[in-house]
């Protein structure tokens, strides 16, 4: 997949174009993207996606820019242009349709959802887009048992610790991939070393508590138990972090990326009266995580 920049525009021979935020790249997005890929194949043109970085969601983002681009590539995009939302959100719908969609990208066909809105104040719609693009194909919303699949729905699932349905609507197991940072080494002192990860500002954070799950490091999958919370027994900062104890792992992780799949919610966040009480609870959490049936793998 090619990442487009201003130097690549205008596109010489046109394209089939999809425009959207695509946060999460979920089942509904996948349906639209498959349609766009098929239309591009029929026309012999590249399938190009115009998306955004830095979008102020009503909730928090599910996928950062790098993750979103990776997933869009896996869904069949030939090229992606990622615009900074802050720099384009004030552009009128007519200006965007004429100068961006028509002139810069040369869209011969645009594929979009039935509820498409674009431009400043969300004033643009499908009838307006049809004035500038020869062919506009709308894709119906994706429903699962009567429920419309959306990014906001998935954020709600993640926020309440419902990873089974979050994964179901995503079409893949929910996970987060963050750099491992140095911690206080309290986990090691208690006999349960952890990989500590800090959630970036604006990211959708899972419900606080302890999860059974899996993690992947350098292509190898391990069972694990993950505690997401503020570490109330030993910290007063209030910052929510992820601490993952990896079963059977020995090695260094500092400064490297670890992908964590928190699958089964085991218990809520709790403050303990002593480190001995905390150690005993971690021991119980490890046992419960190992006994969780395949960590309810999706």
Written account of the structure:
With 298 residues, the protein is an alpha/beta fold. It folds into two domains: 2-142, Rossmann fold; 175-296, Riboflavin kinase-like (Elongation Factor Tu (Ef-tu), domain 3, Beta Barrel). It is built from nine helices and 14 strands. The chain has helices at residues 27-43, 65-74, 85-88, 93-104, 126-129, 151-159, 163-170, 186-189, 275-291, and strands at residues 2-4, 15-19, 47-53, 79-84, 107-113, 135-139, 143-144, 147-148, 176-181, 195-198, 209-217, 220-229, 241-246, 257-267. The strands form three sheets. Strands 1-4-3-2-5-6 form a six-stranded parallel β-sheet, sandwiched between helices. Helix 6 runs antiparallel to helix 7 (163-170). The radius of gyration is 22 Å and the shape is elongated. The two termini are 28 Å apart.
